[in-house]
Amino acid sequence: MLRVYFYHCxxxxxxxxxxxxxxxxxxxxxFHAAIERIPNFEVKLGRLVFRGFSKExxxxxxxxxxxxxxLAVDLLTLSYTRQMGTAILVTGDSDFIPAxxxxxxxxxxxxxxxxxxxxxHRELMDAADRSVVIDQAFIDQVRMR
Length: 145
Fold this sequence. Notes:
By secondary structure, this protein is an alpha/beta fold. It has 5 helices and 6 strands. It folds into 2 domains: 65 residues, no CATH class; 78 residues, Rossmann fold, CATH 3.40.50. The protein has a 3-stranded mixed sheet with strand order 1-2-3. A 3-stranded parallel sheet has the order 4-5-6. Helix 1 links the parallel strand 1 and strand 2. The radius of gyration is 17 Å and the shape is globular.
């Protein structure tokens, strides 16, 4: 294994953060710092942007920025420079299909892990060399190791 990249965003904080926002942010920073201390793990942070409120239920809408592009750039860079033979992606987003196809052309095996209640896009599963469902049986099996 070369490295594990963890792509994520810190929680949103308003201009004058509430106590709850500050606490959530602090916990997320601590979580990311703990991951970075694991050998061969690297955290790549994007930004979480507030996009308004839902018309249906009034809940705030947030959007991750830069995360998908960071992942795609790293996937392509590592495949072009032949620094990896296998890439394991945990996603359901079909936006990664072009990066997956090019990486495969560069000889990288792509293994897709995805949830069962929110499965990966069908075209994404087709683009990957193999897909694995993360269900309770999978979690129990990993826990036993």
